[in-house]
Amino acid sequence: MKPETAAKKLGILLEAAPAEFREGVVTREELSALQEDPPEWLQVLRREGPHPRSVVAAKLGVSNSGLARGGITDPLTTAEIKALLVAPPQWLVQERATQAAVRAEKRRVAERDAERAARGPRESGGGGGGAGV
């Protein structure tokens, strides 16, 4: 697979990976080996960053769109992420609240759907809205 794909699967920023990783092809076996027993460079990259947008968003508890709305376009290091969490700017507070509301709504809909499924199919007749012919 392409290095871009492997980096995404590993949750790392491709540009921060060593040249031999960026310039080569990664087999499925090599990817599995990297996941099961990560070398030092991969451990450091995962621990300290810089991190790709998806990882930054997850660590901050916001969406990728929320990062963009907050003006975060570049990769961040773990230290930069921690600094944002310690003293969150207003955009981060707002985006985390938005994300919490989205998660709550998803839970509500899932519970409603589970309740409907538990009741079984509707009985025929009445309330169908048809012409009644």
How many beta-strand elements?
0
Rg, alpha carbons = 22 Å
Model regions low in confidence, pLDDT < 50 over at least 5 residues: none
Average pLDDT score: 91
Strand content: under 5%
Helix content: 55-70%
Order of helices and strands: HHHHHHHH
| Gross morphology | flat
- Report the end-to-end length measured between terminal Cα atoms: 60 Å
Tally of contiguous helical segments: 8
- Based on helices, strands and strand pairing, what is the structural class? mainly alpha
Major sheet size, sense and barrel closure: none
Assembly classification: single chain
What are the SSEs and their pairings?
Elements: H1 3-10, H2 19-23, H3 28-36, H4 40-48, H5 53-60, H6 64-69, H7 78-86, H8 90-119
Please summarize what this structure is.
The protein has 133 residues and is mainly α.
Give a description of the structure:
The protein has 133 residues and is mostly helical. Helix content is 63%, strand content 0%. It contains eight helices and no strands. It has helices at residues 3-10, 19-23, 28-36, 40-48, 53-60, 64-69, 78-86, 90-119. It starts with a helix and ends in a 14-residue tail after the last helix. The model has no long low-confidence stretch (mean pLDDT 91).
